[in-house]
Amino acid sequence: MADFSALDIVVLAGGISHERDISLRSGRRVADGLTALGHRVTVLEPDASLLAYLTSNRPDVVWPALHGASGEDGALRALLEQTGIPFVGSRGESARLAWSKPTAKTLVARAGVATPASVTLPKETFRELGANSVLDAVIAGLGSSLVVKPAQGGSAQGVTIVDDAADLPRAMVDAYTYSDVALIEQKVVGSEVSVAVLEVGDGPTALPAVEIVPVGGAYTFDARYNAGETRFYVPARVTDEVAGRVARAAEVAHSALGLRHLSRIDLIVDADGIPWFLEANVLPGLTETSIAPQAIEAAGRSLGEVYAALAVAAINDAVSV
């Protein structure tokens, strides 16, 4: 049996996405947790020297802590697959599916999980058909209570909650700042919850749902990463029956997208206790204010031990292929 007591692990953090600083914080916390357990950890940036370093040094496992496109759009993960070095997290193909919010919504809906009605609008279509006529059609079909977001991206960047039709044009501009495709969803009123799904050998398991209550009313980028901006309730303040529905919805979404090891599934629970899928995160934030670490600790597990278990799961998965 392989000795997993002292692994050589490369943690990837940083990158050039809008979420670089968050990635550096996540990577440092992963590295600290692994080092405390006796693993040998090197923290690297994904740059022009990365692939040569990995193929020359052949670490036991790569632990990507990269947020945004550099770590979650599937490209880097597909290249890691080519090296043959085990790595934590979803493979390239699944990451691409989850990175596209419209694609993820379609696949999860087909698996039986509710997701808000929506329209996906490339910037070219918006211009070609005329902003006014397009937005009039959207409001006629979905109403004026909407959520506008980039079709790709994370950390709520470019996301706007629209309660007045007059605010919709500006929301579109903000979304297009981060992506050439915007997703416009019908707003579902309810409790926002986020579920970390852990998979270390026994199938996907939903950890306790975290309920999110932003002090300012919206779970913005600042609310996510600045202490005191958001109140978190772990576990979420729902009945046991609803908690079960939420867990099942998260596990179904994780499996429908083919995700692996660790994901975070964001949902809204409406007044009838129905969970609505919003999006999936291939690599959830792991900072001191992030949701996944809170869920891990609420499940009675230490962060370092879970991060190490994920590294071992990656090695085992590579051996079994």
TrEMBL record:
Residue ranges annotated for the ATP-grasp domain, each copy included: 105-312
Molecular functions (GO terms): ATP binding; D-alanine-D-alanine ligase activity; metal ion binding
Q: Which InterPro entries match?
A: ATP-grasp (IPR011761), ATP_grasp_subdomain_1 (IPR013815), D_ala_D_ala (IPR005905), Dala_Dala_lig_C (IPR011095), Dala_Dala_lig_N (IPR011127), PreATP-grasp_dom_sf (IPR016185)
Q: What is its EC number?
A: 6.3.2.4
Q: Where's the active site on this chain? A: E19, S155, S290
The enzyme class is: ligase
SUPFAM superfamilies recorded for this chain? Glutathione synthetase ATP-binding domain-like (SSF56059), PreATP-grasp domain (SSF52440)
Query: Keywords in UniProt for this one?
Result: ATP-binding, Cell shape, Cell wall biogenesis/degradation, Cytoplasm, Ligase, Magnesium, Manganese, Metal-binding, Nucleotide-binding, Peptidoglycan synthesis
Pathway where it operates: Cell wall biogenesis; peptidoglycan biosynthesis
Residues reported in the UniProt entry to bind Mg(2+) 2: E279, N281
Note on cofactor? Binds 2 magnesium or manganese ions per subunit.
Q: Where in the cell is it found?
A: Cytoplasm
Catalyses: 2 D-alanine + ATP = D-alanyl-D-alanine + ADP + phosphate + H(+)
The record's section on Pfam families has: Dala_Dala_lig_C, Dala_Dala_lig_N
Cofactors per UniProt?
Mg(2+); Mn(2+)
Q: Would you name any one GO CC term?
A: cytoplasm
> Which positions in this protein are listed as binding Mg(2+) 1?
D266, E279
BP terms from Gene Ontology = cell wall organization; peptidoglycan biosynthetic process; regulation of cell shape
Q: Name the protein family.
A: Belongs to the D-alanine--D-alanine ligase family.
Q: Which HAMAP family match?
A: Dala_Dala_lig (MF_00047)
Q: Which function does this protein serve?
A: Cell wall formation.
Q: Supply the name of the protein.
A: D-alanine--D-alanine ligase
The organism encoding this protein is Leifsonia tongyongensis
